[in-house]
Structure prediction request, 224 residues.
Amino acid sequence: SQQGEEDPQALSIQEGENATMNCSYKTSINNLQWYRQNSGRGLVHLILIRSNEREKHSGRLRVTLDTSKKSSSLLITASRAADTASYFCATDANDYKLSFGAGTTVTVRA
Amino acid sequence: GAVVSQHPSRVICKSGTSVKIECRSLDFQATTMFWYRQFPKQSLMLMATSNEGSKATYEQGVEKDKFLINHASLTLSTLTVASAHPEDSSFYICSAVPGYDTQYFGPGTRLTVL
Prediction:
């Protein structure tokens, strides 16, 4: 069943600005992952953060995890037009099955 | 990086037709593969877990007789939509687990049932 809730549902920003999206979940997790999906395409894995980690960086991406609040955030810095996509968080409770959030659609305006 | 392929990428068929979708891990072995379904502008919903050499396990509400899964080898899982109807039209995505945290997703198959 779908566990994660994401906000905002949609985000429109200017190129060069930062984009922040949040994800909340309901049950205990082993790890939380963020994925990007371009329209009508498959998923691209962005970053995985384990339940004992609080923050992780990968290039222009920064992910935080607060297990006490059961929430995570994804920050994309210095956004580019190519970052236009839908972003999903997904939680893994330790069996590789992923429960996906509803997703945030990000539009980066040139 | 690890690559997962799906075939076909899109299929259009008449109502009542059975459709087979293949998911292959190209450069690693996967004892476990997953099948997800995504309706337009919605998130991915897990349908079933495909285990090599054993029966698939289905999520609640997913008809096993409708969505037949066969994990024939460590690199191939197939999903057959039996007697497809327009409400089965969706984007079907598989993923494969190489044995550690990250799983790799296929590019998806868009099924349109007329």
Notes: DSSP finds no helices and eleven strands in chain A. The two ends of chain A are 37 Å apart (CA to CA).
